[in-house]
Amino acid sequence: MTTQRMASIPIHRDESADALSGIAAHWLMTGELPPELVTGHKLIDFEHRFLVSAIANLRRVCIDHEALVNCKACGRGIREACESQLIGMLGDVFAFILDHFKTEESIMRDSLMIMVDRDVCQAHMEDHAEIAAKVQEIVSSLDSLHIVSRIRELDALLSRWITNHIALHDLLLSRWISREDSLIQGF
């Protein structure tokens, strides 16, 4: 799936927002991923915890990321602070996703899943590429008057990752490596 096609995929804000609100509430109460997002793979789950905390931190950058159309109403100092925070987060998130995707793709190869179920692995890796491309797109479109728009875009992307990618791809990968005959079981 290309980045162009991904941009045309409607993000169902109501479903995503509701699902993510439950995830966020669970995270705030327990500091843990909700059970439906736990893959059972220690490293992958650890990295997903970082993702959930990144979403929580992202939502703290702007005073009202959902309602503000742009950043014109905020003073220059506030805009600069928001921009600085977002740039730092984007750098951290981008570095994280590259490492995380590398980890998952290595697991696919090491467990031989890629040889047995190439189509499933290819779809998983394509989703990784789309997510990385979208983060790059957000980075390249930064400007001080539209930081709130970039926050919403990143929030929607990370929300999709949490609600869709983990459930569709990562849980399948986890089930594959937890088989009794897996070469890397218990990794």
Lay out the secondary structure.
Blueprint lengths: L2 H6 L4 H18 L11 H17 L17 H35 L2 H4 L1 H23 L6 H31 L10
Helix pairs in contact: 2-7, 3-4, 3-7, 4-6, 4-7, 6-7
Task: Kindly provide the name of the CATH class.
Answer: Mainly Alpha
What radius of gyration results from the CA coordinates? 17 Å
Oligomer: single chain
- The CATH architecture would be Up-down Bundle
Structural class: mainly alpha
Shape: elongated
CATH topology: Four Helix Bundle (Hemerythrin (Met), subunit A)
Specify the helix fraction band: over 70%
How much strand content do the residues show?
Answer: under 5%
Unreliable runs: 1-16
- Largest sheet features: none
The topology string of helices and strands comes to: HHHHHHH
What is the domain total for the residues?
1
Number of helices: 7
Number of strands: 0
What distance separates the N and C termini? 30 Å
What is the average of the pLDDT values?
79
Throw out a few tags for this protein:
disordered N terminus, Four Helix Bundle (Hemerythrin (Met), subunit A), elongated, mainly alpha, 7 helices, 187 residues
Structural description of this entry:
The protein is an all-alpha fold and 187 residues long. It has a single domain (13-68, 75-177), classed as Up-down Bundle (Four Helix Bundle (Hemerythrin (Met), subunit A)). It is 72% helix and 0% strand. The protein contains seven helices and no strands. The chain has helices spanning 3-8, 13-30, 42-58, 76-110, 113-116, 118-140, 147-177. Helix 2 packs across helix 7 and helix 3 (42-58) packs antiparallel against helix 7. It is elongated. The two termini are 30 Å apart. 28% of the residues are buried. Mean pLDDT is 79; it is low at 1-16.
